[in-house]
Design brief:
The protein has 101 residues and is mainly α. It has helices at residues 13-23, 30-37, 41-53, 67-99. The protein has four helices and no strands. The model has no long low-confidence stretch (mean pLDDT 82).
Length: 101
């Protein structure tokens, strides 16, 4: 059974800004602009929403996370380390509790 991999296209910050600018003009519909650019319409709407909600933080790109995203990543990493430590401690307790006469 082959695993299905999704490939994601990557767009530059400038490309996203230009797509949003075009979609906000009255010349064509958002659907038409999305088709012309080869971008799913839902993605273009998402970009528009991101830019309106937080213009200064829209489209951070790879490695440029918002403070909240960075904290989330750090906490997930810390949680995984704590889980691994807990599993090791469980094994140590099991070994010592069964190993004593």
């Amino acid at each position: 059974m082959a695993s299905e991999q999704r490939s994601y296209r990557s767009y530059t910050h400038e490309c996203k800004l230009e797509a949003v600018r075009l979609s906000e003009s009255d010349e064509k519909s958002v659907a038409q602009i999305a088709r012309d650019l080869g971008i799913p319409e839902r993605v273009l709407y998402k970009w528009r929403q991101q830019l309106r909600a937080r213009p200064e933080q829209a489209f951070p790109g790879k490695g440029h996370q918002t403070d909240l995203e960075e904290e989330n990543r750090r906490l997930r990493h810390e949680l995984e380390a704590v889980r691994q430590e807990r599993e090791v401690l469980k094994k140590v307790v099991a070994i010592f509790s069964h190993g004593l006469p």
